[in-house]
Amino acid sequence: MCGIFAITSNRRNDIGETLVECAEKLTYRGYDTVGVATVFKDQIHLRKDKGKFDEVAEKHRLREMRGSKGIAQLRWATFGAPSKLNAQPHLDCDEILCAAHNGNILNFLPLREQYTEEGHTVRSMNDGEICVHVVERYFNQSGDLVEAIRKGCRDLKGDYAFAVMHKDDDKIYAVKMGSSLFAGIGDGETCVSSDLPSILPVTREIVNVHDGEMIILSPQKLEILRLSDGATIERNPYTSDADIRVAQKGGYPHFMLKEIHEQVSATRTLFSAIREPYISQFVDTLIEAERVFFVACGSSYHATIVGSYYFNDLANIAAIPVIGGQFNSQYGESLSENDVVVCVSQSGETKDVMDAVHHSQKHNVKILSVVNVLGSTLTHLSDLYLPLGSGFEISVPATKTYTSQVTLFSFLATQAGHKKSILDKKTVDSMLKDLKTRLPPLIDETISTTTLKARALAPYLSNFSHFYVLGHGLTHGVALEGALKIKEVCYIVADGMYSSEFKHGPLSIVDEGYPIVFSIAPNDAEHIVNHLAEVECRGARIIATGEDHQLLRRYVNEEDFLVVPNSNKYVSPILQAIPLQLMAYHLATYKNIDPDYPRNISKTLTVR
Ligand code: BG6
Q1: Which of 55, 69, 219, 419 is most buried, by the most CB atoms less than 10 A from its CB?
Q2: What are the tens digits of pLDDT across the range 172-210?
Q3: Alpha helix stretches (DSSP H) within 40-159
């Protein structure tokens, strides 16, 4: 996934400064190449290169670029290696048009061949370059840029959003076709961007953009056209109350550590973000469903695994967690309109999840979703969604949104259990009190009581290029999530696994001093004691998270036991992800890895 930001203004002629300030907030979306183009003195000025944002901005003095309109792009490479040539924005053959995109043009290779045969100079192997040439091709025929863009989009296959500008007018044109795009109206300037935080330095007046729409930006106004028939769409802006400080580190060395600490407030704001009647509608739909599928990727998928245990235990509902990219081939042809697909996505833009949504809608399946980014594509596509209210999550490894997702599942399962008369009112009231009142301070206590041990483990764990994180029952998803954090930010192959499965093969890897991390649910110690014994007797060094327990202390040394405060069977799995997040964070910083922008990955992937 990439990030694009474009702005046209009649207030400034040093647009480079604004482009850099805003585009910088898109860093989590891609940091393989960076590029900025502005129009100044009737010419397009383009500076782009391979490298991280700050490096390229410094080296090419992007802040000093002049002009009153421009486009910036940050790239996470898919088609075309990270290089200066493949960096965006791209120019057309005569250098009078310039464009940049986010997403994927699936038919770019055949179009590239066709346009090259037609005499176009297609300079790079990046699919985004096709956007400027397809517009150029129709513009050369009609001289009408709006028509050229509308016709051009008919030729492009895939999910994307792009911005394009001509050197001879003060407008910028942008389209949304499956990838995220937001628009903003400021005082004497208008802009578009792949996400909302990057627009806030310019304005809080936000206009949602839907798939199949074109935005025409001029300094004074913003127009919306439907791509299919060119019809004008009236849509009022709304004032975003998002706190821009969320997009700053607030004194923490990294967004990841800041967002780990923000889990205390995020689990509070969750309960003001979700409202009736949507909660009841969501729960009723799950109860009435023939089959419930949880569809998600990465950390969100791991949250759905913990969620499925909650629904089984608290509401006797079988919720089937499925990886987004796997859903259509595993369940796609057996779907019926009595099934429900619950999509869980922090960004609301993950392509694999979108594919499952589009396929399910063809089978008249109801789409419910749990999303953090309001106004994202998934919120537009869902029949009903519940917002997490976690605020922007900048660091690539998800932390606070994962914890809010798990907390929400525990809450919804409790509601469902109550509606199905499985849980009595007393049990429900105490569960809700635990989640709404006790959980935030318990998270705070968990961070302060496990940080030192988590940090102290880094030198030892840094000696290993692989190890295991095991969970059982309600901590199965927690172990998978812990392992993912270590993979994401420490470049160590930590494999998450169900502890009973470990003896069926992987146990062979264990030798003297080999690290095995256990996440142990309350009341589970007796149940998994075999799993502890079978690795301990082969010399493994057991690291554990869990509530204090004498039996566990026979297998886990004090310095390796990251004890979480006592709570209950359902709250404890929420707490137990935190010491694993801290272990990953401190191991990454110990290895001098920037946990916010780990190599090769990106916060949200809008490509299949
Ligand atoms: C990956 C991120 O690209 O997408 C993960 O690196 C994330 O951190 C996963 O969990 C799923 O993202 P989302 O936005 O759909 O929850």
Answers
A1: 69
A2: 999 999 899 999 999 999 999 999 889 999 999 999 899
A3: 53-59, 108-117, 129-142, 145-155
Q: Which residues are catalytic?
A: 2, 603
Cβ–ligand 1 distance for 350 under 6 Å, the answer yes
Distance of alpha carbon 80 from alpha carbon 123, whole angstroms: 11
Does the Cβ of 603 fall within 6 Å of ligand 1?
A: yes
> Packing angle between helix 145-155 and helix 129-142, nearest 10 degrees?
130
pTM for this model (two decimals)? 0.86
Å from CA of 353 to ligand 1 middle? 10
Q: How many CA within 13 A on the CB side of residue 228?
A: 4
Nearest to 52 by CA among 75, 32, 78: 32
Distance (Å, rounded) from C-alpha 489 to C-alpha 592?
10
Tokens of 156: 């492009």
Among candidate residues 484, 489, 566, the one with its CA nearest the CA of residue 517: 484
Question: Does ligand 1 lie within 6 Å of residue 404's CB atom?
Answer: no
Gap from CA of 146 to ligand 1 centroid (Å): 35
**Residue 233: helix, strand or coil by DSSP?**
strand
Centroid of ligand 1 to alpha carbon of 1 (angstroms): 11
Sheet of 232-233, strands arranged across: 90-91, 97-105, 158-166, 172-177, 213-217, 222-226, 232-233
Tokens of 86: 């493949």
Element (H, E) at 574: helix 572-590
Looking at residue 71, the DSSP 8-state letter turns out to be: E
**pLDDT at residue 109, as a whole number:** 94
- Give the residues across from 3 on adjacent strands: 74
CA angle 539, 542, 544 (to 5 degrees): 170
How far apart (Å, rounded) are the C-alpha atoms in residues 159 and 179? Answer: 6
